[in-house]
Design brief:
Blueprint lengths: L1 E6 L2 E7 L5 H12 L6 E2 L2 E3 L3 E4 L39 E4 L11 E4 L13 E7 L1 H8 L14 E7 L33 H25 L14 E5 L7 H8 L5 E8 L6 E9 L2 H11 L3 E2 L2 E2 L1 E4 L4 H9 L5 H4 L51 H5 L2 H38 L1
Antiparallel strand pairs: 1-2, 1-9, 2-8, 3-9, 4-5, 5-7, 6-7, 6-8, 10-12, 10-15, 11-12, 13-14
């Protein structure tokens, strides 16, 4: 009686010892017949000792015997069948792998050298490798990590029963799939032979590192999702001239397609341009055209820098504050926002990177005499200054300077009056 295991590195033929371990052999054959071992990894390889497989979860903690699959039985394990005449004397001995006595499921191991006496009398030996010792040599010399797992995955692709002397138990026919599961073919590790291979390796390492860092940020709640990607309709513009206004920028970039929003980022205190902006298009094709055509162009005597935006700050802020996420947000888009301030801009003055300008705050309108205050000599009210925070700052400074001047004149007059009073008293 024999079973053929087709692995990713070669074939193994196992002769089963039916007379010495009938239960273990029947369990192994029926699991092979129901394709239970297909795509199972050789989870651990201990050089010159054993290699272990047979867990469909590939964790080393799963697997069960065929009786657990049959209706009405529900037995996950079967008992040991230890025969004193069977020992681990030859390379390629096949035995059940278990952590405790009488807890045999589906996992099994194959010895990689002769005479492993420490395993004798502890595990059920039910077969030996008849063909494929060269495959065992490949398994034995494979590179493994600190947990003894091979770096290059080794899998059981197919199992084929060459001879089955056991009758199928009742209800077993329903467990046999109509066809074998699809084979999982892992990427084969290859040596670095030229600069292209090295460049490809560096790119893959950078991608893996970026994924690892994103997962770390997700665990630290700095990202809503490790797989989040920046929107493909946003472009970033830098090196702008401070005099460039939102409306001017929008007019220039709108020739490539409809724009959702165009914002020059400004200092939230002074309203001065920080010389970079974000333009959001309605579709990705227009965004690409703007990138290819506008990068390194001159606007207001400045050669600008244009690139695709990598920022997910808007999505992050919505996630952090618990705001509802729209379909556009989930798809990587952005909501339409009001334009910034400036001669060509429209809408409310609002900075995407900070709180609203305090001079234009809605909460300060109509709540006291300060709303209609006019600074001495300025000739402008609060509503007029709202459109020009820089002017407001100058007016405020001018008002404070004149207030200090009046206080100084008042002190001088009081001092002169006191000096005259003292002179009259002495006379």
């Amino acid at each position: 009686m024999a079973v053929l295991l087709e692995t990713s590195i070669g074939d193994l033929v196992i002769d089963l010892k039916v007379n010495f371990a009938p239960k273990a052999c029947e369990n192994f054959v029926k699991l092979c017949k129901m394709k239970y071992y297909n795509n199972c990894l050789f989870m651990t390889v201990q050089k010159d000792f054993i290699t272990q497989t047979g867990d469909p979860t590939n964790t080393g903690k799963g697997g069960c015997c065929v009786h657990a699959k049959l209706p009405g039985l529900g037995q996950r394990y079967f008992k040991d069948e230890i025969n004193p005449s069977l020992k681990h004397t030859v390379r390629g001995t096949v035995a059940m792998a278990n952590e405790k006595p009488n807890e045999n499921g589906s996992q099994f191991y194959i010895t990689l050298r002769k005479n492993i006496e420490q395993l004798d009398g502890k595990h059920t030996i039910f077969g030996s490798i008849a063909e494929g010792l060269d495959v065992l040599d490949k398994i034995n010399i494979c590179m493994v990590d600190e947990k003894s797992a091979p770096y290059q995955n080794i899998r059981i692709w197919h199992t084929e029963i060459l001879d089955d002397p056991f009758d199928d138990p009742e209800g077993f026919a329903e467990l046999i799939p109509p066809k074998s599961p699809e084979v999982i073919k892992d990427e084969v590790l290859k040596s670095i032979e030229n600069e292209e291979d090295e460049a490809e390796l560096q790119e893959r390492m950078a991608s893996t590192l970026a994924k690892s860092q994103a997962t770390t940020l997700e665990l630290l709640h700095d990202l809503p999702d490790a797989d989040i990607a920046p929107p493909d309709t946003d472009i970033f513009i830098a090196k702008l001239n401070p005099v460039t206004q939102d409306g001017d920028l929008e007019l220039i970039f709108s020739r490539f397609g409809p724009i959702k929003s165009c914002e020059i980022v400004r200092d939230w205190k002074t309203g001065d341009s920080l010389q970079y902006a974000f333009v959001i298009y309605e579709n990705a094709k227009d965004c690409e055209q703007a990138y290819f055509k506008m990068h390194d162009c001159v606007i207001d005597d400045r050669r600008i820098f244009v690139n695709f935006s990598q920022s997910v700050a808007k999505l992050w802020n919505k996630w952090r504050t618990g705001s509802n996420m729209s379909k556009d947000d989930v798809a990587g888009g952005a909501e339409k926002k009001g334009k910034g301030r400036g001669k060509g801009g429209k809408g409310k003055a609002k900075d995407s990177q900070g709180p609203p300008i305090m001079a234009a705050s809605e909460s300060q309108r109509g709540k006291g005499p300060k709303d209609g205050m006019v600074f001495e000599g300025s000739g402008r009210g609060r509503d007029d200054r709202r459109d020009n925070p820089k002017k407001e700052k100058e007016d405020t400074g001018r008002g404070r300077s004149r207030s200090r001047s009046r206080d100084r004149d008042r002190r001088d007059r009081d001092r002169d009056r006191d000096r005259d009073r003292d002179r009259r008293d002495r006379r």
